[in-house]
Amino acid sequence: MATLAIWCNARLSDQATAILSAGVGPHRLMMTAQRTGNLSPGTADPQLAAADIAFGQPDPRQVIELQNLHWVHLSSAGYTRYDLPELFAALRRREAVLTNSSHVFDEPCAQHLLAFMLAQARQIPRSLINQSGPRQWITWELRPQCRLLLGQSVVFLGFGAIARRLVEMLGPLRMNLVAVRRTPRGDEPIPVHPFDHLPRLLPTADHVVNVLPDSPATARLINASHFSAMNSSAVFYNVGRGTTVDQDALIAALRAGKLGAAYLDVTDPEPAAPDDPIWSAPNCWITPHTAGGHQDEHERVVRHFLDNLRRFEDGSPLLDRVSVE
User: Fold this and answer.
1) Alpha-carbon gap, residue 130 to 104, rounded angstroms
2) For residue 282, is the peptide bond before it cis, meaning its omega torsion is within 30 degrees of 0?
3) Mean pLDDT over all residues of the chain?
4) 33 C-beta neighbours (distance < 10 Å), count
5) Model confidence, pTM
6) Quick one: average pLDDT of 33-40?
7) What is the reported pLDDT for 40?
8) What is the dihedral of CA 200, 202, 204, 205, to 10 degrees?
9) Which long-range contacts (CB under 8 A, 24 or more apart) does 187-195 make?
10) pLDDT band at 39, cuts 50/70/90?
């Protein structure tokens, strides 16, 4: 294959940058001066006009306009800012490819959700609050509140890579698992229903796991009627996007005791201001968008890109390809 020009604006560690530099082989690597994290939109860069491949978070308008750009690999799992009809049409016209990094972030996000579920079942937050506060030996208060996940029911909102991995992790716990998604594919490992079946599924759930992405179709999709349909001991989890939930309705449900607890890795807006009422909502536990984080995150993102680069070189199917049809 001819030498390719690879543009990168991903914010990477020094070690990950070294792995990338060594791994591109004969190809020309162009690292931008302005590096961009996954949660920030990339800005237009004149250097991108000389690239065959973009790795990171390129400016969506440039992705549309630059005819020489044949492959865009996102350093994130989410691709909301690229989910544009005009961008998809431009990629189709020049037979270009869009991929993301779902394979990097499904494992940590699924583990984070499992940690949330176990923390709630074993009453870990209440023990930690007690340790940092009165330090009373509240054995007989907490023991009856502890639960077994064995046999409990989970409803997944969305069924992408994170939900699929969590299903594998929950297998040994013999839980009852079901999901809703916009278009069931039929190849899922658990029963999956169209989204309009959700109201009848929610009353059966002990756990409701939201992994929905941000999009116009999902904006505040989970609302007061959904929280009202859940039983009062149900636990709601969100590692998708905060914008998919009516946060005021969630707070109201927690304050009214209509929901057992909420575990959130995302909020709306994000970051939540110190005086945002979500912080003080009863039985609401928040991590600051860390579900996808892990010690060697940058290195794994780079290795995932390099794996796809080898596939791109020899014409093999790319991992995490986003459909632009």
Assistant:
1) 36
2) no
3) 97
4) 7
5) 0.94
6) 87
7) 82
8) 160
9) 188/159, 188/164, 189/164, 190/156, 192/159
10) confident
5-100+295-314 sits in which CATH class? alpha beta
Give the tokens for residue 10: 């991903």
Specify the residue for token string 């992408």.
Answer: 160
> With the C-alpha atoms ordered 13, 15, 17, 23, is the resulting torsion angle positive or negative?
negative
The reported pLDDT for the residue numbered 42 is 87
User: Which of 127, 122, 144, 159 is CA-nearest to residue 235?
Assistant: 122
Residue 140 carries which DSSP code?
H
**CB within 8 A of 223, min separation 6: which ones?**
246, 249
234 φ/ψ sector (left φ>0, alpha ψ -120 to 50, else beta)? beta
Q: What is the pLDDT of residues 119-154, one digit of tens each?
A: 999 999 999 999 999 999 999 999 999 999 999 999
Distance CA 78, CA 158 (A): 13
Cα–Cα distance measured from residue 321 to residue 56, given in angstroms and rounded to the nearest whole number: 15
Strands (DSSP E) found in the chain: 5-10, 28-36, 53-56, 71-74, 97-99, 153-157, 176-181, 192-194, 207-210, 235-238, 261-264, 284-286
pLDDT for 41: 83
Q: What CA–CA distances, in Å, run from 199 to 61, 157, 236?
A: 39, 12, 15
Residues of the chain with CATH 3.40.50.720: 5-100+295-314, 105-286
Class of 105-286 in CATH:
alpha beta
The dihedral through the CA atoms of 181, 205, 199, 243 has a sign that is negative
